[in-house]
Amino acid sequence: MKEPPRRAVGGRLAAVLIGLALMNPALAETPASLDLPALLELAERHNPELAAMSAEVEASRQAIVMASAWDDPVLRIEWMGIDPDNPTLAPRRVGEMKYGIEQMLPRWGTRGLEVERAEAGSRQAGFEREQRRLRLRGQVRTAYADWYQARESQRINRHLELLIEQVEQTAQQRYAVGLGAQAEVLRAQAERTMLGNEQLALLAEAEAARAELAGLLNLAPAALGGQPDSLPELLGHEADWGERALARNPGLKALEQQRQAADSRYRQSQLNNRPEVGLGLSAVQMGNDLDNVELMLSVRLPLQQGARRAERAEAGAMLARSQALADAGRRELEQAVHGLVARRDGSRQQLELLRHSLLPQAELTFESALAGYATGRVEFAMLLDAQQQIRRLGQDQLMAEVARFRAENALLTLTGEQ
What we know:
Helix content is 67%, strand content 9%. With 418 residues, it is of the alpha+beta class. A hairpin with a 2-residue loop joins strand 3 (276-286) and strand 4.
């Protein structure tokens, strides 16, 4: 889903803002726990980009007031009949004083259209802030999932180390009584060494994910303690995600407000072909007497028709552009939601199969192979294959769990859910 280009904020700017906020210790607030809702609230409270967009929303509200105001009147004072031999500005010592006030009247209907544009711009700013808030929550959940994935990969790795220790012990026992080869013991030891090396890499990944999450919370990585212990289910089994996204997606609503503002501007450009009228009132002072009240009518003639035709053409093109962006946004949103629902459902089914069928079967297969290897009925290669199968299925289960969480997270962001 593309953001409206008018107020899009680049990823580099967001990174700079977060970096500047991290330099200010006053913004740091250590979370009480790694509870995901608490982390989301903390991220919203201290995100500098959200604070900047809130200020922009407030500024856009003030623009509505400015759009509804008339132009300021013009006050004129004229000194007439000044004696060149004795120049003065004293009203009673010149020939005449003329006081006047002029007010240009807005073209009929234009002021209401200006207010419509300002209101649409204010609503657009609000929806863009809401879109950024939802994206921030999605980024926090994604970083949390990355950290969880790295920690769970470490857990799987430690479980495999325990299994390979059993294999190594059994191989040593068989080698000690002359039933096995030393190569089998060395192969098991080499497998343990590789798992230990992988554990170091996974530790680095976990620390990088923790640092990313801490950055989103405006915290130093060391201030983020604890460990993520689970990935909660974020959504139920509702079937109307497409309709909910079209009705609630803030990015799509922002595009619609951009279209409404362009429509108001186009209608206003059609009114600019009319003359603009001004009224004036003046009075002449001679000595101490104030008389000769005058009324003035001025008309600004729209003679530059070429410029006005160009203005209407530009406004029409911008209206067509905003309409096309809104249409494209709807199509992209529908496609994205459809794909995410399919991924979420597929990951759920895969996770159910792995968790309750394939992985328990692989564990039983390994135990049976280990017992068979201890008595010489199973080859060492078959035992290692059983251990590798547990490795593959454990990783597949973790990937399915994370994929399900990521799909639900993206659905939450697109549908404007919390």
